Amino acid sequence: MLTKIRAAIEEYKMLPTGGRVLVALSGGADSTALVLSLKELGYRVRAMHINHNLRGGDSLRDQSFCEELCRRYEIPFRAESVDVKGYCAEKKVSLETGARELRYKALFEEAGGEPVATAHTLSDCLETAIFNLTRGCGIKGICGIPPVRGKIIRPLIDCTRDEIESFLRERGVGWVTDSTNLVDGCSRNIIRLNVIPELLRINPGLLSSFSGTVKALREAEGYISESSRRLFDESRAEGEYDFSEACDDASLSGALALLLKEAGVEPSYLRICDLKRIISEGGAINPKKGVYLRAERGKIRIERPREAFEPVKTSLRGETRAMGKIIGVTKISHFDISRFNKSALRYFFDEAKMAGEYTVRPYSGNERIKLAGREHSFVVKKLLAEVPPGERKGRIVIDDGFGAVFVEGAGVAERAACSESTRSAIKIYIKDI
User: Number of structural domains, the chain?
Assistant: First the structure.
């Protein structure tokens, strides 16, 4: 096992010879073997135990075991107690997520820039690959757990659980067992306790076969990732991403995954397929609230709605500043409706029909407006259907106290519009500040 660990450290450039490393020590067989093997290999090891306070007396037992183990082997040790339940209640996350976030936060703070070694094994890697396959994944998902992720290293990534237990027995070292791992009450335990034993019946050399497969897949994934990053970087230009000439489908998929991450969206196979479709056909998708990806002629841009604006009161005299724009008016005396076409009249009010104070604001929900010359009222959002979704909330709406009386780009409500009897009109103009 030590040979495998040394080879993994060298292959994945985890640690320099004799380097310093902080081990996340739970007291289980894997982390116990990890801290002892790294010490035997000559690394300057220290250990940290995170007490999640989730299993009553068992949590205290685990901490005491880790403390005694490190005392016996003269390994610098520190324990930290965290309130997982309180954190999860505050952040509204699951116990598993909260425990992981608090654990890594404590480990990184203690490490102070040193690598943090976790005890993930080849067996864990296989479990993760199967778990990912059940949900749907790409090559990276089938690869399971990466040997290195940032400052996190996994020196046991090529070792099996049987090898680890044999290593400890040879040295007469025990370990603690988390009883929750023995109950198939969650997806990973179902895979560990039920699925993998059946696969081993089919192929007793399953872990060895998987090890070779995953190494080949990591090489392929590394090549595709590098190609995808290059395509993504080269596509970026002036606020948009040009994929019109992308010819390598695998690299394009990877580049689109990077684009989704850039937009703050979790990549998925279906979202990447949607992006490929709009690259080819044009259009937009809304993968997350407040985020739109719009494509035209193979070029994609990320759009986000403008931030919320406070309504601004105005008399529609002179100029009003609101929503990052200037709303101004021009008075036209001796108005003759026959001199203006239908499109221009969308910006004219009949001055005789204007009274009181107005409010400039974005449109609100599914509010309606009956435009001049239309038989029925329309939902404002539908009137702006041709406007990119990320820009709609930036369109000016003027409210006269009875609802929307003017919608930028759509027109004036019938109750304020000019007609053949209009003698004096007010024309609205809008420009960006």
Answer: 3
Closest CA to 397 of 374, 352, 430: 430
Q: For the chain, list residues with pLDDT below 50.
A: none
CB 304 within 8 A of CB 288: no
The residues with which 327 forms a beta bridge, in sequence order, are: 320, 430
* Structural contact between residues 139 and 217, judged by C-beta atoms closer than 8 angstroms: yes
340's tokens: 């203006």
Answer yes or no: is 209 within a domain.
no
State phi, psi for 404 to the nearest 5 degrees: -65, 130
Of 202, 228, 252, which marks where a domain is finished? 202
Q: Which pLDDT score, from 0 to 100, does residue 11 have? A: 93
Final residue before a domain boundary, out of 149, 180, 202: 202
Q: Return the amino acid letter for 148.
A: V
Sheet with 312-314, edge to edge strand ranges: 312-314, 358-361, 397-399, 404-407, 411-412
Distance between CA atoms of residues 110 and 21, nearest Å: 11
Residue at token pair 């719009």: 294
Q: What are phi and psi of 87, to 5 degrees?
A: -65, -45
Mean pLDDT, the chain, rounded, equals 89
* pLDDT, position 105: 93
**DSSP label at residue 192:** I
Provide CB contacts within 8 A for 47, sequence distance 6+.
22, 23, 24, 25, 35, 66, 70, 75, 76, 77, 78
Side-chain half-sphere CA neighbours of 123 within 13 A: 19
Q: Is 18 left (phi over 0), alpha (psi -120 to 50) or beta?
A: left
Regarding whether 350 and 287 lie in a shared domain, the answer is no
215: three-class secondary structure by DSSP: helix
The answer on 324 and 194 residing in a single domain is no
Q: Which of 410, 394, 318, 317 is nearest to 361 (CA)?
A: 394
Residues 65 and 168 in one domain: yes
Residue 208 belongs to some domain of the structure:
no
- Residue 182: C-alpha distances to residues 87, 197, 200 (Å): 26, 14, 18
